[in-house]
Amino acid sequence: MSYPSTKYFSNIRENARLAWAKLPKHLHYTDTIWETNDVSNANLTLLVCYLNFVYNEFMILRILTKNVGISNVELLQLAMKILSELTTVTKKRNYVNSEGNVLSRDFPWLLLSFGLPVAGVLTTELRNCTISNTPLDKSIPRSTLIRNLSVLIGCLEWLPEPHKYYSLCKDASEKLGSMLDEALDYEHQHTYVRPNTDDVAMDLQDQNLAMTGIDPNLPMDSEAFLAWLESVDWNTAMPTL
């Protein structure tokens, strides 16, 4: 399958940024809107509009990273930005105001629409870097990434079983949790020296492959998780805003 040129996607991103910049300042989302505990429909709308804007860029970069081979650094940075906003707003999910518990009502929609795709990409990157023993890009703090992913996974487990989207959130939390556990529990093996030889050390990569079945040079990308995500029947399983 052929894809448009990178210039085509760059034009889309530039036009979106210009349109966003033309919005009046009072329609621009900033995370300071939560400082007053005003979890209103208006503020929630600002958040959703902002997440849509950033998520569109995320999806374009995912296409380019996967099919054109550009660096994934900017993709990861946008994913971190989306994840950070979601973890910030989780602190307000049980806040009730005169309009009712609007955030608690729409919280599953936010997590499923924006949280799962970016979490899948970030968790996979963390796993791959851990197994290959390479550092994350310096713009992606490992401790912050692990903390925010843990918060998101915990929020997916927050829905009670009678909830309409309990099964979907439960499946997502289990899959993300398994990927995160694999990254955190992975232990690199020290170089092994074969007995009764000329003291030639076994290559570390071969040893990892022999002992774990995982080749660090063949990292699993996010397609395994995203394939599951795309298999969901969103017409019946997806919450509506």
What would a concise description of this structure say?
The protein is mostly helical. The protein contains nine helices and no strands. The chain has one domain (4-189, 218-231).
What would you note in describing this structure?
With 241 residues, the chain is mainly α. It has one domain (4-189, 218-231). The chain is 61% helix and 0% strand. The longest helix has 30 residues, at 102-131. It is globular, with a radius of gyration of 21 Å.
Number of domains: 1
Count of DSSP-assigned helices: 9
Distance between the termini: 34 Å
Q: Tell me the number of strands.
A: 0
Shape: globular
Helix content: 55-70%
How much of the sequence lies in strands comes to under 5%
Order of helices and strands: HHHHHHHHH
What are the segments in which pLDDT stays under 50 over at least 5 consecutive residues?
A: 195-221, 237-241
Features:
241 residues; mainly alpha
SSE layout:
Layout lengths: L5 H16 L19 H27 L5 H18 L11 H30 L10 H15 L9 H20 L18 H9 L10 H9 L2 H4 L4
